[in-house]
Each structure stands twice: as structure tokens, then as C-alpha cells.
Write a structure and sequence with these properties.
Number of strands: 15
Shape: globular
Strand order of the largest sheet: 3-2-1-4-5-7-12
Largest sheet: 7 strands, parallel
Order of helices and strands: EHEHEHEHHEEHEEHEEEHEEHEHEHH
Helix content: 40-55%
Radius of gyration: 19 Å
Structural class: alpha/beta
């Protein structure tokens, strides 16, 4: 098939290009800069320069490729997160999730593209109340922390637009693995090694993880399987911060994480950071397994933290 990957040099896209090329597909990948374009070419894809925040640039790239499948993996997530100004950190990504998604869908429809797969997110975006683990039938958080309202609205917009167009929105859990912040040499992993990531309060926030290679595998599954809708792409074991963080610390040879009261942490990471560490809810992957025929290689973050943080 002819497959177009918007964001072909990004975290997931850079893994998709060689995998899809190896499977015999004709792959076009986009990037903004020369380094990203070179990576796409080196992986066997056709590289196209595209600005994921510019409607005209998006339309030209998609109509030129006229793909049978369009995969939206556009994000702009480099540098340190400021949890107290979360929406500012995600401002460009939010534009890609709103205007960018709309432009990609419109161009795909004009090009006669038959299938659309769009990246979304699951984790802190779940409602911080009720059941410990959420399914796709549960609503997103109706009362998000103010610092993350725009980001949650952008996630919701991308999902609504995708499903309305007959596409699949893949809600990835918290990424870890090679090239990720939570991966060998990554910022978060180094912070864990330095005991700079504490357990906040009771550490009861539930996180769902997804190894970056499992995210790519799920996307490939969605290229030709599954009906329109939203899918959680996470491992089998949602876990509280107080459970997974000490295991991660041991896995990387660090001392056990410190504990800090929520009121102390609030001055450093704001209300958003505290809520993620103390009241977040996890996500179920049952639908993705059943309808996409996908199984995570790393069924548990326990195995992934031991074996999957480095090169793969």
C-alpha cells in the first residue's frame, strides 16, 4: 500500500518507516528539517518536507503522495517539561492536534485516502475519579487542572475529528524505551538515577506505560485492522507511582526514590504534576487486543524497565 506518515522522523514515525518499508509498502514520511528528512531516506522511505502547523504545506504533501493510508504522528515535544505551565510546553503539539489534524483529514479526503490513523494519548487525561482503570467508553477528565486544559481539549479534538472521519485514534500510554525521555540517556531516566523524581504524597496515581516499539507495532496493526474508534495502546499492568517508581530505580541502579508531601511538590511541579502523581487513573488495553489483534511485546513495565530501556 501507499502509506503517508506525517511525522516520519518522530518517536513513533521513525520506527514505522523502516518496518513498513520492510513489509513491502511504499512509504512517504514527512519532517521539517534536513536531519529528519535524511533519517527517513536512510530507512527506505520517500522524504517530504512539511510544516505540520501550516494547512497549505499539509495539503500539498498529502495530495502529492495520494496515499491509501494516512498516519498522523505529528508532535513537537523536545526539551524539559514545565508542569506548572503544561499548556505552554505543549502549545505547538496542540496546534498539530487541532488545526494539523483537521488539515490532514481534509487533505486525505480530497486525495481519496481510505484509512486514517491518528496518535492520541491516555493517562493523566482520564478522569481522576471512579474506577482505577478506564476503558475507551469512559469520558476524558471533565475537570482538568487549569494548566492542562488546552492540552486536554486538543487531545479530545483530535479524537473527535478522527472518529468522525471514520478513522482510528490510538491513545498511547506513557512512552519509554530507546530515544525516549524515559529511556537510556533520556532526561527523565537520568533524573531517576539522581533521585530527583520522588514519590509525591501517597503515590497513588495510576500510570499506564507503552514501550515505543509496542506503539509502532500497534500503529502497524491499525493500518489494516480495526473499525473506526478510539483504542488504548498500553501494557497489561497499570500501576501506582508508589509501585513502579521504586522498581524503575532498582532497574537503573539508583537508590530508592525519596518521598515528599504533596504540598511541597506543589511548589515545584504545580497542581498538574501533583494530580498526575497522586490521583491519575490507568487504562485498559482489552479493546486493542481484541479488535486490532495487537499484543504488546512488553506486557508489563516490569519487563520493559529491565530489558527495554536501551537500544532495541
Amino acid at each position: 500500500m501507499k502509506i503517508f506518515i506525517a511525522g516520519g522522523s518522530g518517536a513513533v514515525g521513525s520506527r514505522l518507516v523502516p518496518m513498513l518499508v520492510a513489509a513491502g509498502h511504499e512509504v512517504t514520511g514527512t519532517a521539517r528539517g534536513d536531519a529528519g528528512l535524511d533519517r527517513i531516506r536512510a530507512a527506505g522511505g520517500r522524504a517530504v518536507a512539511m510544516d505540520g502547523t501550516d494547512d497549505a504545506s499539509i495539503r500539498r504533501a498529502v495530495l502529492d503522495a495520494r496515499p491509501e493510508v494516512l498516519v498522523h504522528q505529528l508532535t513537537s515535544l523536545s526539551g524539559r517539561f514545565d508542569f506548572k505551565r503544561f499548556d505552554e510546553t505543549f502549545a505547538v503539539t496542540n496546534a498539530m492536534r487541532t488545526r494539523g489534524t483537521d488539515a490532514l483529514i481534509a487533505a486525505a479526503q480530497e486525495a481519496g485516502t481510505g484509512r486514517i490513523v491518528v496518535q492520541s494519548y491516555t493517562g493523566w487525561a482520564n478522569e481522576h475519579a471512579g474506577t482505577r482503570v478506564k476503558t475507551e467508553a469512559d469520558e476524558l477528565d471533565p475537570n482538568p487542572v487549569p494548566a492542562a486544559r488546552n492540552t486536554l481539549a486538543a487531545i479530545a479534538h483530535a479524537e473527535r475529528a478522527t472518529v468522525a472521519a471514520g478513522g482510528l485514534a490510538l491513545r498511547f500510554g506513557n512512552f519509554y524505551g530507546p530515544g525516549q525521555s524515559l529511556g537510556e540517556g533520556g532526561e527523565m531516566l537520568e533524573s531517576v538515577r539522581k533521585r530527583q523524581v520522588p514519590i509525591v504524597g501517597d503515590g497513588a496515581g495510576v500510570w499506564s506505560f507503552c514501550h515505543i516499539d509496542d506503539a509502532a507495532a500497534a500503529t502497524i496493526a491499525a493500518v489494516d485492522r480495526g473499525s473506526a474508534g478510539v483504542y488504548n495502546i498500553v501494557d497489561d499492568e497499570p500501576a501506582e507511582v508508589a509501585e513502579w517508581l521504586p522498581v524503575l530505580s532498582r532497574a537503573v541502579g539508583a537508590k530508592p526514590p525519596m518521598r515528599v508531601p504533596a504540598w511541597v511538590a506543589r511548589t515545584l511541579i504545580g497542581e498538574f504534576g501533583v494530580s498526575w502523581m497522586t490521583t491519575a487513573r490507568g487504562s485498559s488495553n482489552a479493546k486493542a487486543k481484541a479488535e486490532l489483534g495487537w499484543q504488546p511485546r512488553y506486557a508489563s513495565w516490569r519487563d520493559g524497565f529491565r530489558d527495554g530501556l536501551g537500544a532495541s
